[in-house]
Amino acid sequence: MNHDRPDVRHALLFGALWAAEEALTGLLLARYGLAQIVWMRFATHLLIVWLIWGRMQPASLLRTRRPLMHLVRAAALVAMPACWALGMRRGLPPATLMSVFWLAPVLILAMARLLLRERVVPRVWGATALASIGVFVVTGPHRLPDTMLLIYPLGMAMSFSVFLVLTRMLRHEPEPVALTYLGLGVCVLLAPFAAVGWTAPRPTHLLVVGAIALVGIGALLAMGRLVAVSRLSRSAPMAYLQIPFAMALGWWLGVHAPGWEGYAGLAVVLLSVLLAWSHAGAEAGEGAVETAPARLESRL
Fold first, then answer.
1. Which of 97, 112, 217, 220 could lock onto 233 through a cystine, CB 3.0 to 4.6 A?
2. Is residue 243 a contact partner of residue 272, using CB atoms and an 8 Å limit?
């Protein structure tokens, strides 16, 4: 058995929980700003982390030699909804935002090659690029926006890529510590923006926030374990497994009923992921070295 091959169970769990988290967040967007929702989610996230792991020894949640790297990771996560909100405010359709965002796995492969010195087999490059085309078909038809506005979805993709690279580099950190610093960083960075136009939350909506936080913690743990076990050059394409779950939830909630183009695009995505996974154990990646991360970690 190849222990560096992506664990499909973690990949599927991550994709399902990520899609559920986004669906739950959508239930609150009509009343609250995105910054407030994310802030409330991570404030609740911190409470849950403390209740589960920190009641006996709360100081243990802060013990790390890499606080700066943790905070940069939190900033990368904050940048994703920030770019989404700015793009929506400038008139970019959600379909365009998502179709460009899903170039992220290609960027992750590039970062894995450049920063982590991982080798990526050509078929994985091709399968990942093909999956991004499948997503473009799923989210279509598209209206060509002002080219300069594409900086927002590209910013989302870049932020997510940095987030996963740092998650891989922090894989030896205890999970509760990583969750704590992520929550603290997000809450501190978003506090000024959440305070602007703050809307008093309804009790029923606080229950939804709690559900988002719980589901989000599950997604973060599944993602962390996925990239801890397998190199990003092998696990990055697994992120596309969020697409079928998002489509299923959209159909179930009556938000979007895909046509034949959507199903065709989904088939391309799934076949591409299968191709990437089947070649994840290729011998081309066995000799990868990771000297660059050590240098980068020492700076952070």
1. 112
2. no
Answer whether 84's CB lies under 8 Å from 159's CB: no
Q: Both tokens of residue 42?
A: 């991570």
Contact between 76 and 159 under an 8 Å Cβ cutoff? The reply is yes
* In the chain, domain spans: 8-299
Residue 112 token pair: 């894995």
- pLDDT at position 288, please? 43
Q: Which positions ≥6 away from 28 have C-beta within 8 Å?
A: 37, 205, 208, 209
Residue pLDDT, tens place only, 81-94:
999 999 999 989 88
Ranges of H-type helices in the chain:
8-26, 34-49, 67-89, 94-101, 104-114, 122-139, 151-169, 175-195, 203-229, 232-235, 242-252, 260-278, 291-299
Neighbour tally for 70: CB within 10 Å: 23
Task: Give tens-digit pLDDT for 52-73.
Answer: 998 888 899 999 999 999 999 9
- Quick check: 97 and 84 in contact, CB under 8 A? yes
Q: What pLDDT was estimated at residue 289?
A: 45
